[in-house]
Amino acid sequence: MGDAAFAYPWLMPWIERFFQAWRQGRAPQALLLAGPEGVGKHHLAALLARRWTCAAPPEAGIEPCGQCPACTLDDETAHPDRFELTPQSGTQGIPIDAVRALQADLALSAHGVRRAVVIQPAEAMNRYTANALLKILEEPPQAVLFVLVSDAPGRLLPTILSRTQQWRILPPPIAQAEAWLRAAWQQAGAQAEPAKDPQQAIAAALALHRGAPLAAWRFLSSGKNALRDAFVRDAAECAWRQPIAVASEWTQRLKAQEGDPNGLRFAELFRWYQYWLADLLTIATLGDACANRPERLHFPDAAAQITAVAKRRSPIEWFRIARLATAIAPWVDHPLNTASLCETLWLNYCDGVS
């Protein structure tokens, strides 16, 4: 079930902030929605763009009217007053030609009363693309709203940051996120991954995704909870197993996921590995002060196992293992042999805990 099937109540304060400014004639010309993945930034950008291009005044409410010419075009493949800049298929960057084409389109008359431009992820712009966009932002066309979406705002040029109003979209309170996920789970019914204890699965998913509810929901609905449990089991018990055997099993698991667009990839497995090491370091350095507060961990339900493994080495040795993991990080998205990456990961770890 897609994210759009649910409401996002934690975004309402941001929506109300935008509409309050709009009603007062202070609507931002360029917004930067920054924050971790999975908190709804893309949804918020799409909502603001749709409502901005609707002809209804802000006093009419946050929903598009559905009757003006701009709204009747919403089912069209390309809306004439809404533009979206994203990386081209097969690439990771937004080319400068896309901004040049945008500049040419904005030079033409609008179809309706307002236009909107969404750029996501904004960090996909290289220096040349960002400088071309900067020229537009320095002399923006009338009635055009620019919305930049970024998981990594620190990678944007300072000049771009200075031209945007920055909103830091953070995860909602845990209680609100858990309530939203429970409702999503109930609404999805049989489509959600079965679990003996849904509440425990929800808490584990939120901890693993730093409280981001949409990321946690994608995790739960894609069947990765069982893989996460297998990872915890292997990481806790691998001191008594051969690392090559563990790596071979994970290579097979990753290959089995290749046909699924939402399946587990090595980059995500590596992120779990980094979180596990972070939890080991936390308990190794803070001891019972953290072990007795599992909510501080990425794997709170495995606090006992993490504590047992952490005692096998000194904090200095755990830092050394984490530093070796950092050396692997630049290669996690590279199309190398998955088996080789898995072996490197588990050999590094098992050597540390044996």
From TrEMBL:
Cellular component terms per the entry's GO annotation: DNA polymerase III complex
Gene3D superfamilies (alphabetical): P-loop containing nucleotide triphosphate hydrolases
GO terms classed as biological process: DNA-templated DNA replication
Protein name: DNA polymerase III subunit delta
Organism lineage string: Bacteria, Pseudomonadati, Pseudomonadota, Hydrogenophilia, Hydrogenophilales
